[in-house]
Design brief:
The protein contains two helices and 22 strands. It is mostly beta strands.
Length: 345
Amino acid sequence: MYKKLLPSLILIGCTITSYAQSTLTAANFNPQIGDAFAVVNCAPDTVTPRNGGPAQTWDFTSLVTTSLDTGKAVSCLSTPHCAMFPGTTLAITSPQSDLVQYILADSAKLSQVGYYQAADTNLVLSTDPMDEIRYPFTYLDSFDDSYSGTLTFSLATANEIGSVHVVCDGYGTLNLPTGITFTNALRVHSTQVFTDSTDLFGTPTIDTFNISTYAWYVSGYHTAILTISFVTQFGASSSSYQLVSYAPYEVQAAGVPLVNGIASSLSVYPNPVQNELNVDYDNKTNDNVRITLIDMLGRQVAVIADGSGQIAQHIAYNTTGLAKGLYILHLQSGDESITRKIEVE
């Protein structure tokens, strides 16, 4: 039996805050309509979740990146299949895969209601969603949840019944590739077991799945910063594989005040670009501004600017040395983080 796994919620939020121990709440973790994100997928070979416990340092600087996904949080009603997922408060779209995830986010919890990719590829958990986080949530907190729904795949429809155990088993510093570091990160370990049962051409068929997922969070960031999942399937079909991804950059966060106001003045042109990329902005508070280019594998390929200056800035960057394709321009200044998608021709 083919099973389309329900993806983890991958929404990037706003400024990273610093506490002795982070505590996830609805106010600092629930996604908002308008949030947008980029997620770097990685080669899973030899990636282990490291140790849990207090005051850990998790070093994942050697992750090998493979591809980049993007997405955006939108209202459920703006999607064509919202009616299939009653109770949903928002949806997450992904243009790379045509996948739409449906989420319930309220003051008590963040839950997965299902996903829709096609008429023959969807999962509906609206009558009994799966809780991902219950608030407030911090180190050593845990909970258990059961869920059920209907999976539609290829030629059949299956009943899905499962349970999940979630525990925050560590906190500390998380180091990612290209020098990205998050302090006071919480590590959350979820153990998910579920069965899909159906009748294929008169033959009862049952597949069982075990998924062990480690995810790192900080308060104020609306997503798992890093996710490592181990998936085992057995029954009518058998397989075992690993999924690894991290979300290091904010693309856009709804309702986040702009401290420096660079976003309102930032201009990047032409786009697509053939020879010279122009970047204009006004740095009103004289904070340091660092502008980098990231390729579709999540690698930093250029530093366009790294310095301060309180007057209007104009930078002309020669792109002739770059391979043709898509890139992300990332500007970081104080608490403000801005990205733009750039195409080099």
